[in-house]
Amino acid sequence: MESKQPLRVPSFRWRLLLCAAGAALAMARAGHADSAVVTAVQDATLIEDPSGGFASGSGPAIFAGRIASTLQSLRRALVQFDVAAAIPPGSTIEAARLRLHLAQANSGPTPMRLYRITSSWGEGASSSLGGGGAASEPGDATWIHRVYDHLFWTNPGGDFDPLARAKASVDQPDFYTWGSTSEMILDVQSWLDDPSSNDGWLLAGDETRTQTAKRFDAREIADPRLRPMLEIVYTPPCVPDPRGPGFWRQACAGGLDASVTACAADRLQGIGLPGLDACGAVLAAAPPSCEDRAARKVAVLVLNLCANRLQTSCPVEPGVCESATLGDRLGEIGAFLAAGDCRRAAACAGLPD
Predict the structure, then answer these.
(1) pTM of the shown model
(2) In this structure, are 330 and 249 located in the same domain?
(3) Residues whose CB falls within 8 Å of the CB of residue 307, separated by 6 or more in sequence, listed in order
């Protein structure tokens, strides 16, 4: 593979561009946050009935609130998301928001509260278009069963922590969001760290007044955009073993993965260096000039970021620089480069040649 030569620009321009690059990357020092939208893996409606004879595990809707003024008219919605399958282990959860689509409702705004479920439950094959439910089937969650017909809730109506995780006022058909709250973040973090503790959330409406029930689209609804979604913002775990220039020289000479190449080009353009080719910089012939060495340092850092070997929020070993995180260190490197101090910039980068 023919090696590409690094971009040649005047020293003064390099210093200005690299100073800007360091400042731009330093802005991300608060954390390299990623996001994920997770669809529900289970949802169901608990139908108030002392015998547990009615359920709706696989219907197109979930209900919360009171459907009538009669007895046995309460409905509670259950929803669960497989957080551990969507978020890298060891990540830190920064935000969590539950999004539901309200398809039908009794008139008037109603407070809907979210609670953490404390026992496992099932989603059976029962299906009901309305809030009346259908005959319970094996595996269903019912008013008295966690799993019909052999596992029971400790408390009829579901086992859940009485501390509400979030509240939203729900009125006319639309999308509604719960969170992000500190309690929801703690729940999602615990589900990531210990998946066996993940029993999901219970949504309860106003159960003191009549005809307050709200109908939300369930995960079985045909349109995927209307299904229950959990929006998560997280910081992936820091990886303490970045690759050095030698590794990237070999990788570039052998043909770099296309996703890393595209990512590097996108990041370099985003920090004001659209003309810099990352592989060309690391493949530059020795001995490098001051500008070539600066280009290589920036390229190696960006390649590591794109290969998920580094994050701007990760702590770094103390040394020439005073900064404690990679994001701050990039800012210091930029300052050294702006001052024309290539030796201190290279030492601050901390990567072997």
Answers:
(1) 0.70
(2) yes
(3) 243, 260
